[in-house]
Fold this sequence. Notes:
The chain contains four helices and six strands, in the order H-H-E-H-H-E-E-E-E-E. A three-stranded antiparallel beta sheet has the order 1-3-2. A three-stranded mixed beta sheet has the order 5-4-6, with no helix packed on it. It is α+β, with helices and mostly antiparallel strands. The chain is globular, with a radius of gyration of 17 Å. It is found in: Cytoplasm. Belongs to the Fur family.
Amino acid sequence: xxxxxxxxxxxxxxxxxxxxxxxxxxxxxxxxxxxxxxxxxxxxxxxxxxxxxxxxxxxxxxxxxxxxxxxxxxxxxxxxxxxxxxxxxxxxxxxxxxxxxxxxxxxxxxxxxxxxxxxxxxxxxxxxxxxxxxxxxxxxxxx
Length: 143
């Protein structure tokens, strides 16, 4: 990576953290750089982000990765997409959009929102409002 691209990556990460009102600690900056440093949206698990940080020689524990991802979500920088009760992905794209979950590869990607048509939702219970609708479309190879 060139010095100019490192500066751009660092700048993107710093600005992203500032948007969420988060202090740019060394570990937050390192993880934010992996998540948004190239300007692309990502779907990561805590484990995949931890592996990327290890590969990049960053000293961050898996517990710190989990805590940092939670802080990013709480700050409105990412959203958690729960695929199974025990499997969460973290998405840097914050607008409403559906996802494909590729069962064979255990990966999550964006699905084309313009092709999704939800014509009606159930009425929420008294005193409640719909905050968000998550759509995860599970895919597997045909038998």
